């Protein structure tokens, strides 16, 4: 009984913050939450078994039963939402729990939780006339490719969709900010201190024995195999700390459930902390999903060492959609910035998501293709925070007859930020240009890096834009070369095309290309197909369409999607989405449309040609061009 009570007390002490967040949506008074914690602990005083998940379930249900008034969170942000929508949104989008976990805590079905979420977002969007479920699935990457293209085209062409998506992302960002900033007083967290060294050693003893034994065995094999001194020295680096390209090398491993997790490098600055790690199974049969959204997947035991509070989240280290057989699953875990200059932290992974090798992770969502592996992987390692450096560039170059002014580089341990200005057209015509770059230094190419938290300019100077690339901080090169690889431009345009539905196919001239309105398939929805001649040198990659609604007597909904050819930086052509699985840098790809399909929807009506739109309006077009501009920057 005493052993069970000690185990429970230790778990409560180390999970006080998690319990606070689980109960906050129902009760926002710390004293009342403390009372609930003690009440649930008393329920276990006469039992011999303590289950962590059962404790949390009882805690949430007790908080729910004592929820007698609207919390400050609901009064300030969600006063117009129903309690079920507030609770479902909070658990799924503030705490990052899954639908099934949320349904279990709220004693509802997953369908009911999903309905409450959609209803809540609909109200928060001001009851906009857009399919909220589709936008959520689009944002989360849960659509098949055909549907993704359709929604993407709607967002590009329909302002209502684009504004709804922008507002939806702002709302989700607000939810994540709530989770990062939600923290009780030090009084409530008094018992929530990190485990002692003795407790950690006890927890990690099995893993350490396995890791040390395996390492010694491996070193013996190296000697017996006469691999050579250089190779042995390389392997011996796992016991030391040194600086490498991505961060400081630590190489700490833990094994459970036949799966090894290794922290390889760490990087920290004033904006964030990044932990680079690998996951592999000891039998080398599986790969692992490195996307981490849920707070229960991994935790940091030492919460007090950070200057902010937010849940860890993770991304794959590369853009590869399919890993080769011999590739290892590599990821980046993003944590808050450290309070001090140097700390030791302990990560505890609870679950990993395993899937078969050769699977296109972004192209499939079949639950049979992957499974959750539960375990406990404890990894303790040091992290040192370093200050960012600012390097002046103060150079202007010509890019396709446009002046591009490069102001400076912000070189930080987690990201390199390039501040620059782009010269706009001054004749009143709307144009928008942007460039994609990489950095080359000491023989290594650093790719665009969009998984960073901060776009702050550390100089507070006047700049228009920044472009982020992977950090060069730890490499400390004497000079680097900015490789300006591609310019992407969008141009305002105004062209009307009157459609003669009785004389299809019909052709019209668009810039230097012939476009054919090929056929129409009348139904509900009705589709109109446009064919374009492929030409790598044509004046546009794809154009953006709309309809002349003022001349219409019938209301209809519409959307677009296209088919085309992708071209990489070396000129290789890809005709299907599936062919792109091995592209490492998606920012180098040019997409040229060859077919555009318009889908018209007339709810509850029989359709004939008289109800179809008379004109297509082309409002703008885009063009992407490969560049070969180079700019050398001396870093000293």
TrEMBL record:
- Keywords of the record: Membrane, Transmembrane, Transmembrane helix
Name this polypeptide is given: DUF4179 domain-containing protein
Q: Which organism is it from?
A: Anaerobacillus alkaliphilus
Membrane-spanning regions, if any?
209-230
What is the superkingdom listed in this entry's lineage? Bacteria
